[in-house]
Amino acid sequence: MGKVIVITSGKGGVGKTTSTANLGTALAMIGKTVVIIDADVGLRNLDVVMGLESRVVYTSMDVIEKRCDLDKALVKDRRVEDLFLLAASQRNRKDDIKPEQMQDICERLKHDYDYVLVDSPAGIEQGFHNAAAGAEEAIIITTPDVSAIRDADRIIGLLQNQGIEPINLVLNRLSPILVKKGNMISKNDVLDILNIDLLGVVPEDAGVIASTNRGVPLVHNEGSPGADAYMRIARRMTGQRVPIPEMREDNFFSNIMNWFSRNK
Amino acid sequence: MENQIVKLRGYKDGLHLIIKPKVSLSEVEAAINKLLNGMNPPLEGTSIHIDLSTSPLTSDDLKDLETHLTDNYNLVVSGVNILDEKDESPILAAPASHNISESFPADSQQEFGNAQIVRQTIRSGQTTSCLTGSVIIYGDVNPGGEVVASGDIIVLGSLRGNAHAGAHGRLSSVIIAMELVPLQLQIGSYVNRPPLGQKPRGYPEIARVGAEDIIIVEEFIKF
Lengths: 264, 223
Description:
Strand content of chain B: 25-35%
Distance between the termini of chain A: 55 Å
Oligomer: heterodimer
Mean pLDDT of chain A: 92
Low-confidence stretches of chain B: 84-110
Structural class of chain B: alpha/beta
Radius of gyration of chain A: 19 Å
Strand order of the largest sheet of chain B: 5-7-9-11-14-15
Low-confidence stretches of chain A: none
Strand order of the largest sheet of chain A: 3-4-2-5-1-6-7-8
Structural class of chain A: alpha/beta
Shape of chain B: elongated
Number of helices of chain A: 12
Largest sheet of chain A: 8 strands, mixed
Number of helices of chain B: 3
Helix content of chain B: 10-25%
Distance between the termini of chain B: 42 Å
Number of strands of chain A: 8
């Protein structure tokens, strides 16, 4: 029996879809069976980020309205074994789906797959409620800025009211240089406010944009800071103990400074 | 708004129920029901003053009204003021049948001895309210979260959101937090906010209404 995990944030543009694509891919690379569900009906783009746009024939709406079987609506990933996408309908609206219908889909999928990751739309309306309906766990994505943190806090409250537990945090787009300059809220400040367990920190990585545009999730680009962070998070999700590295500035100048201070 | 038969107003000494002149008891009661039933959170368990202008209500009517408020809404009528029609501010006057208390029973142990304990963090968008006494929170109040109490508010964590103590007008209410960095504080009808960019000071603080009718914040040692 698998786990259904909703990936959500409240605020838009903080990396829910990118994180869903990468964590789904990473889990499949570790050897798990995974389905990622796009719950952003009407504004779907998980298929685009995965590079599976042209292969989507049926959507979750077709499953709900019994135009096709659930198995048939799952799109197999191009690169990784055991990774499947259930796309959202682009023609419908978020309130065309009811929470119970979403719950039913998640319930059926978790019998056959290890992980069912649901990519939630932004906001706290129907779309969010649908995405969270079938989930028993949640991953909150936030960036280190006050508006994203405020919205994440709101979402955590709503998820707790629904009895979703555990709720873990992924801090996205952290720039160690900016934190050091005092221009960015640090990891500890975010944790102090949100008061939930930290699943991982993803550093700011310019490679994300390129990988999104190519439709190849970042984790395929082994060695990039973002890819490594997502791989570590996926391992933690499977219960492995992987430490969260303290981020430091990785540039020529600070390396020299470190070298000097080590040799003092 | 001016044509309402009854209206509620918070004054320095507490909550006043103001009754429009020249209306009958049944009309007043109907208006009170409409007003109080429509309130969310409900107004309960607090004391209230009744302000009358030259109203045709007799002292028997007043007694009926008082019983009505006590039985149906658990409200304690702490005084009756007869208003001069031209003057907005309530003037205390005593009809023969009523005891008039100067103001709210100050720091009455019985009235505010009950505290509601909240064993969680109040997050953005969440509200905790206790309109029958004080609130103690075993957690934080995050920005966008709100705590309302008719008595005191004690936060055994960081108060980063909004807090309203003495919500029914009790100005001796205080707000205590281990870390007091709120967006806004309210005690009774007074509102204040910390200066922009206020950092936590690293010790517990208390907010109360000071001598000049503004909310002041100082280190909390003990009463």
